[in-house]
Structures
1.
Amino acid sequence: MPPSEGVLLSAAGLERRFGARRALAGVDLALRAGDTLVVAGPNGAGKTTLVRILAGLTRPSAGTVTLLGRAVRSADPASRRPIGFLSHESLLYDDLSLQENLAFAARLHGAADPSARAARALDEAGLGERAASSPRALSRGMLQRAAIARALLHRPALLLLDEPFTGLDAAAARALRAALAAHAAGGGSAVVVTHHLREAWDAATEVGVLQEGRWVLRERREGPLEAFLARAGGLADA
Amino acid sequence: MREALRLALVLAAKDIRAELRSRTALTSALVFAALMLVVFSFSRDPTSLSRTALAPSALWITFAFAAMTTLNRAFTVEREHGALDGLLLAPMPRESIYFGKLLGNLAFAFVVEAVALPLFVVFFNIRLGSALPGLLLTSLLATVGFVAVGTVFSAMTVRTRFAELMLPVLLMPFMVPPLVGAVQVTARLLADRPLSEVSAWLRLLAVYDVVFVTVCALLFPSVMDE
């Protein structure tokens, strides 16, 4: 679908097999600018595989991913430029300070003033005073905030967040929801995979539940979370 | 092309900065190199093997195995905290990752060689004299060859359970040509033979470099992608 129709991210017929096991079994999705899709589902449902395929980190066995009208392919570096990614891990180097880590990421994205960009991102994450610290010296929550700052550093059009609320205290979770809201207000889209549906609920414009690699529920977010959980029939947790 | 080179330099600079901070690979490689030279020096039976006969092999086995220690580190550091995903997601060609890692690995290998060479001179009581320029050229050509291949194998083995064991097993067969060439050249240079006498070996080392740097750069993207 061309970007002129407002679709920022589209995926069609995504399948991924690991040997005999099918982690994804035909997943479609389309997100418009400003949409935030929150994906829930039991362990092993294919959520992380979906996010990694959308990021271009895992090659699908079948299907395509298109971002801003361009196929996301490993051989096309520019197709990855609009992606911000947060996984279970921080993507940070223990032997570099937070400032150096983020400046390195900014340089990879061709930022004009990488050091200033990194310092600003750390300030926004409330980690300005820890800029000289190694990631190994941070608490789990601080590390998660640093990882989120790294994901947002280059102002990506698409955010792919895998369990972003893990380890965050209430204030940091609020800050993340605010960041997601600001991202959506600026025309960005996001896919958020989480077991903490309650934390992400307000940020969602769409919610979906994956089971055995397929959508078993996918709808615009309407009504209270409890009603959605009832429709999900125990496949999603709050 | 210019952007790809810039990104490779950014990655190499990051690796060098991180290594200077931790000194994990360099310290291990330097200690290992010193120990190898000590072992070679003191285990030689002077009645059956002359110093000059053993010296070239001892030097290159030391260089090669010490470099392997640093090669192991090149991608294991990317495995920690999933940093490799950060590289793969960056808008940089996979080839830039290869050349960035290659440059970083070469820097570490040359540092190890720069420290090990004087130790070699001391332990083997060798006078380098006029052999030094030729030896430095040989070192450049041979090191580029086995580090180019080692960088790819390091990327290949990092996702395996026994990366540290797999790397030497895979790399050794590919190290044979540059090592044989380097030992042949070094033996002749230490015997005060002219550089012209070893030009064929030097050409062979240069061809190996061109071929394997090219092949490795072309193969690297498929190694990186799952």
2.
Amino acid sequence: MSDTSRYRVLLGNEAIARAIIESGCTVSTSYPGTPASEILESIARFRDEENLKIHVEWSVNEKAAFEVALSHSYMGGRASVSMKQVGLNVASDSLMSAAYTGTMGGFLIIAADDPGPHSSQTEQDSRMLAMLAKVPVLDPISPENAMELVALGYQLSEKYSVPVMLRPTTRICHARQKVSIGAIENLKRKSKFSRDPNRWAATPRFRLKLHRELNEKLAVISAEKALLPKSHLKNPSSCKHCIISSGVAYAYLYDILADLNLLEEVSLYQVPMPYPLSLKALNPVLDRFENILVIEESYPVIEMQIGNYKKVLGRVNGPVPQQGEITPDVLFPLVNNFLKRPHKSLKIMKEGGQRPTLCPGCGHRAAFFAIKKALPKALYPSDIGCYTLGINLDAVDTCLCMGASINQAAGFYHSFHISGSESRSIIATIGDSTFIHSGITALINSVYNQARFILVILDNSTTAMTGNQPTAATGMLPDRSPGTSIDLEVMVRGCGVEFIRVIDPYEVLDFIVLLKEAEQYTRAVDGGIAVIIARHDCLMNRDKLQPPERHPLVVSAECTGCQYCIINFECPALQYEPGKKKVVIDSALCTGCAVCLHVCPVNAIKTKGKK
Amino acid sequence: MKAKKSLQTQILICGLGGQGVLFLTRLINEAAVLMGEDVISSETHGMAMRGGSVVSYVRIGNYKSPLIRAGQADIILSLAEQELALYAHLLKQNCQIYVNMPRGKKFNSIHATRIAEGLGAPVITNLVLLGFAAAHAGFPIDYNLLKKVLKNISPPRVLEINTRALEEGFNAARNSQGSTAPGS
């Protein structure tokens, strides 16, 4: 046992990581994704701080992460896998099956949801996926509470040999709170595989048996005392009103009721485990109160299990919006209306603000500029990452989900081809990390099924958008130590592609020529898919030792103020001065990449000291 | 331990991705803990950090949740002038407003960017603004405490310049006392 408890201010994801470590977890895996990315990074950091032996890995995708961690649990160890909610879609095949096989050592799945959404393509509720898989799910109200639920989750998982899901939301993951730090459990377990083919390799006949066993477990789990819905009041029957809630919405509600001095008048129930929900525990509550408001994010999971829509107000029949984040400003009028209290209507939050852009000097910007210049009429399927911001440059037409750019490029090709319509060129863009995540199988499929398009792999040698996590191509491990790198060109060649070129996108003119050559290849009789790897290191990546070469730039008097550069290149360092009617370079932002020299139609941007 | 009244202060910090909103958030959080307060805050991560609008909420005192409701912010620190308008509805009527902008009369404003550039590091604009705010009487966190926390959380190679930034902001406010009446 290490030292006694002490306080630290931790980000929600750090708090979750800390609780995982304290629970004696020895294998942790993840694929980066906002809002979950910091969990694995923090596990690696705490491991090193505390000198622990834990296998921590950035897996190439969530399915790989899930299965690696699950297997440690099969061997009796405690394991965790963390991901964002849409990552769980990728791992859902494994999730559904693992619920039936069950586990040995504690297995915690962290799926971070993103109501809003702030950084995701959907507002989906992972608790619903837990329900579909028949896996217990815990819904923390704060970072502090998430730590308690991690510990309870491991106990629950081992007591019943089931995977357990923790479902934080963005506001938990990216909240920072004073929390208490506990001792680290050293379980000293030796991994051991106990053969049981009827369980670990169950055929459909045995799957029925496993399903029955799972259902029996869930019935018992729902009655687990520590996870039952509980009121903030000792004697809830004394008050007239009742609100049932879970997640961060519970914390908002508590603060609003405290503000309004109503904590004694409303019984506020927290549901730590929305599935399996104990209706036995909730039935007396339902009997006692005339109307009940249910507040949860982001789908009506608790509400639909309760049913009873005559009494229960929520998303199904009631006043709670069916989409968007439930913020305190959304809740305030809801609560007042429910309690039939007069209140002033609120000013509506202004939409807007500054949209994000690619960083100054980003290689992606140069690549998109070249693509637009070379083939302005092409169709541009793209993917998930920083380069989705290519939408600002009109160089992104579609963005569906991880890896979809390549399959969509193939789909668009076949669609043009089969309908006999004039076929536009297709240029798919995908990042290096996303390519390895799920683009690689798409490329194999495209080659095999004889699609024709250009694929530009925007290789910045990192997972940039989520905070520069390493990729399999760099080989770097989570603690930044070197590992085994897998060459991107070899991967592409292995997919059956014959046209492979590598270029630095800063060489805009060469890139434009190359893109035209690639297009010829996609249309040639003996041609096929052309892959260009546009390789330039991410400038935000601190793992790179070499600072980039800098060319000090100026805008000369020849600038006509046409703003072509600002509209078509959108570099934050290029700014229009209305007074002077000219573009100026913000030297604090400019990285001196000098790509804009090729952008200005009148060549007004120059390297300092050169005419 | 003697029971003491908690501070109950809600601070909003806004700016653009890359301006150091998160660092200020962390600094204020750590300072609050040293003051013996509970603290919970909310941060912006992800795509917005690429130059988009970024906001943090810091709630010091007896709070369970991390967001600030309309009309409840006691203090706002705005690293970019144009961002202020986005959060106007969240501010209390007598909210203390500290803004990085060329001198204006409406708010407590300081041209923090220019001072930071003068120090040779535009990235420390955030600390200039914080030092400036800490010089005002109504600001709830002591300047020397902020200095102490800065020492704890700054990477060693930037500690000196970070401290300079905080000092310059603080001194700028003190030097202009009389003209803008800090604390009003």
